[in-house]
Design brief:
By secondary structure, the protein is mostly helical. The protein is built from 26 helices and four strands. The strands form two sheets. The protein has a two-stranded antiparallel sheet with strand order 1-2. Strand 3 and strand 4 form a beta hairpin. Helix 7 crosses helix 8 and helix 19 runs antiparallel to helix 20. It is elongated. About 19% of the residues have low confidence. Pfam families: Vps16_C. It is found in: Cytoplasmic vesicle; Early endosome; Late endosome. This is Spermatogenesis-defective protein 39 homolog.
């Protein structure tokens, strides 16, 4: 290129960069902004100052874009040349920085910054600021065993997976035990139960009795009988092992299968007292199966009066001994001792105490209003042949049971008179309106005042009032008051 001498001197002596002065108004920021003047929307500028302000239009691509964006990406994928890429249409601007900073919204454009901040339904595309590192420590792996236990005690979320070695796990358990918090100990034991083999877990807990007791209780609560049996077998606790095995009969519903299972429990190493109970349980269920089959047949045949008048409401199977005795006294009271369903047979077989037998038989026969059987239950003979009433449960309890089953007043009075304590007798007689007993007792006590008080409680003109008047007017009684 041919230049004149003057042009060359002007070229070499000139520069597009100017030295910095404090009076220079065109700083670097203004140059950058003014260089982008073409992108400024004139509609957004209200004055000369805003023509050099933040009015750069920009757009944000969402990961879940609309169908138009998907179509453009498909065009990008199918085109191979850079020139074709340059011919793609430029996406329309949806956000305006000038709108954000000036708090204004252009028609058809996105909402202003103040509106965007106040609009809770608007979707935010700006990246979240990083949280303080301390907030992530709850989920990190930098907690020590003591810190972890303290956090568990406060109910905070804390992962135990970082404790992988046996030493770390045992240290965690020891920290939990030292806190004396059962919930924390159980939480750590659940973690050890899941991550350790049975042999290692049992071996380590054998020397840690507090944790061992918590594990035994936890296994009983969740019903993990298999692991509990393995634990007792490892610890050589034979009696607890036997009791745990016996407890499994509760999960067997079929009577025959339960009976066979109980038979296998008889030879287990129970204590002497428990062995007797296991034997009685097996014998009782065996009897109940026989009685149930026989009574079901009699009830369906309809030829037995007691089953016609009082149909059975439930099966006798798996019932307690006292319930079985009541059932036998209700349906089979008069049967011979040699039958399995006889109450006397049950009493002797299971060594039922006399008081328990009398109380159960009385409740059953009184419910049927079989007063003759009730009377025979308390009648005894001495070696001279004389009869006498005797109640091992006390006649005051007999009176209460008879009244509960709506016994006639004549029968109640008979048994109230047999109560030895005078005050108890008067209270029962007054409570159950046994007038003759009250009048006769007051007469025997020569208590005129109490007799006068009771006279006011009976009906006017009744036989009881006449009897009281006759006693009060009698000259043969010397009253105490």
């Amino acid at each position: 290129m041919n230049r004149t001498k003057g042009d060359e001197e002007e070229y070499w002596n000139s520069s597009k960069f100017k030295a910095f002065t404090f009076d220079d108004e065109d700083d670097e920021l203004s140059q950058v902004v003014n260089s982008l003047r073409d992108f400024v929307d004139d509609d957004d500028a209200d004055d000369d100052l805003e023509r050099v302000s933040w009015s750069i239009s920009w757009s944000i691509k969402e990961t879940s874009s609309n169908s138009g964006s998907n179509h453009e990406r498909e065009q990008l994928k199918n085109r191979n040349s850079f020139s074709s890429y340059a011919q793609l249409p430029k996406p329309a601007s949806t956000y305006s920085l000038s709108s954000f900073f000036r708090g204004r919204t252009r028609p058809g454009s996105f909402q202003s910054l103040s509106d965007a901040l106040s609009d809770t339904s608007a979707k935010s595309y700006a990246p979240e600021l990083g949280r303080p590192k301390g907030e992530y420590r709850d989920y990190s792996n930098d907690w020590s065993p003591s810190d972890t236990v303290r956090r568990l005690r406060k109910g905070k979320v804390c992962s135990l997976e970082r404790f992988r070695s046996l030493q770390d796990k045992l240290q965690l358990l020891e920290e939990a035990v030292s806190m004396h918090d059962g919930n924390v100990i159980t939480a750590v034991l659940i973690f050890l139960k899941r991550t350790l083999s049975k042999e290692i877990l049992f071996r380590e807990l054998e020397v840690r009795q507090v944790a061992l007791r918590h594990l035994i209780h936890f296994l009983k609560e969740i019903g993990d009988q298999k692991l509990l049996l393995d634990l007792f077998r490892f610890l050589d606790r034979t009696e607890e092992l036997a009791l745990t095995h016996y407890r499994e009969h509760l999960n067997i519903q079929d009577p025959e299968k339960r009976k066979e299972f109980l038979k296998t429990c008889i030879g287990l190493p129970f204590s002497a007292e428990d062995s007797a109970h296991i034997q009685d349980h097996y014998t009782l269920l065996e009897r109940q199966i026989i009685i149930e089959a026989n009574d079901r047949h009699l009830e369906s045949a309809g030829q037995t009066e007691i089953f016609r008048k009082h149909p059975r409401k439930a099966s006798i199977l798996n019932m307690p001994l006292v319930t079985t005795l009541f059932y036998s006294c209700f349906y089979h009271y008069t049967e011979a001792e040699g039958t399995f369903s006889s109450p006397v047979n049950l009493k002797k077989t299971f060594k039922i105490p006399e008081k328990q037998y009398v109380l159960t038989a009385l409740a059953a026969r009184a419910k049927l209003r079989a007063w003759h059987d009730v009377d025979a239950l308390f009648t005894t003979k001495n070696w001279l042949g004389y009869t006498k009433k005797r109640a091992p449960i006390g006649f005051h309890r007999v009176v209460e049971i008879l009244h509960k089953n709506s016994a006639p007043v004549q029968i109640l009075q008979e048994y109230v008179n047999l109560v030895e304590d005078v005050d108890t007798k008067l209270n029962l007689a007054t409570k159950f309106k046994c007038h003759d007993v009250v009048i006769d007792t007051c007469r025997d006590l020569k208590d005129r005042q109490q007799l006068l008080v009771y006279r006011s409680k009976v009906d006017k003109g009744s036989a009881e009032e006449e009897k009281i008047d006759a006693i009060l007017n009698s000259s043969q009684i010397r009253w105490k008051n």
